[in-house]
Design a protein that fits this description.
Layout (H helix, E strand, L loop, with lengths): L1 E2 L14 E17 L1 H5 L7 E5 L2 E15 L12 E12 L2 E11 L2 H11 L3 E11 L2 E10 L5 E11 L5 H7 L3 E5 L5 E7 L6 E10 L1 H4 L10 E13 L2 E3 L2
Parallel strand pairs: 1-3, 6-7, 6-10
Antiparallel strand pairs: 2-4, 2-13, 3-4, 3-5, 4-5, 5-6, 7-8, 8-9, 9-12, 10-11, 11-13, 11-14, 12-13
Length: about 240
């Protein structure tokens, strides 16, 4: 178990060669507190749980993916824009922090298949929507593949902008890479960079979720923490294999 207390809101190691560009728009940051042991048992060997004040945090993050494509070329039409809802936690390997995804639900089957094959990320396909109307963000997911059943319904009301982000708020959002399984033994790591997040306070108006439980997690230790962001443009670097 690792304690993160000095993450910075800006990326300290920008992606030098991006293999993918995209935009993440209208995000709700819902984070549930967990005993680190409950999260650690779901991680592959080589990753430690990253904690804040001794608590592990599991995110249920809905947003709208826009303009997915290769740098220097136009975004992929239709297949390059879709809602996404992921269940994730925060990890460290050899001092390098990152995100570990338990699931990523979208409503485009082909991108789900490509991401599973290329990045070994657990993308799932089904019905999904993420819509911002005035100050209310509404999200709905019903998974169809690779298994039926898990779903979520979330409604969040956006409040005032957070002018000075706390250390905890930075911990939940300032992440510059993702880990995934590799073919064979080991892990993959892909660096990510983007501008500093603009964060807003938010209240949960409605929440009915089974995606977190479907990831293998028990009930959380307390109510979720919630924020909103209008989003950022993102560049993703070349994934590399990391061995034990």
């Amino acid at each position: 178990m690792t304690e993160s207390r000095a993450l910075r809101p800006e990326c300290t190691a920008p992606v030098r060669f991006a293999v993918m560009k995209q935009q993440w728009r209208n995000l709700a940051y819902l984070h549930f507190p967990y005993d680190p042991a409950d999260v650690a048992r779901l991680l592959p060997a080589g990753l430690e749980v990253d904690t804040f004040d001794g608590v592990a945090w599991v995110g249920l993050i809905p947003f709208s993916m826009k303009g997915v494509g290769v740098p220097g070329l136009p975004a992929v039409p239709y297949l390059g824009s879709f809602p996404e809802i992921n269940v994730r936690t925060y990890v460290v390997r050899n001092g390098v922090p990152g995100v570990w995804f338990f699931s990523l639900d979208i409503n485009r089957l082909l991108p789900a298949l490509v991401a599973r094959a290329a990045y070994r990320l657990p993308y799932c396909w089904g019905r999904a929507s993420n819509t911002l109307h005035n100050d209310a963000l509404s999200t709905h997911v019903r998974r169809r593949w690779p298994s039926r059943g898990p779903e979520t319904e979330i409604t969040v009301r956006v409040g005032e902008q957070i002018s000075e982000q706390s250390e905890f708020e930075v911990f939940l959002t300032a992440r510059w890479g993702l880990y995934s399984r590799s073919y064979g033994r080991g892990l993959m790591y892909a660096p990510v960079d983007h501008p500093r997040w603009s964060l807003y306070r938010a209240d949960i108006i409605g929440l009915n979720d089974t995606l977190v439980h479907a990831a293998g997690l028990p009930e959380s230790q307390g109510p979720p923490h919630c924020m909103f962001s209008p989003g950022v443009p993102v560049r993703i670097g070349v994934p590399r294999r990391v061995t034990w």
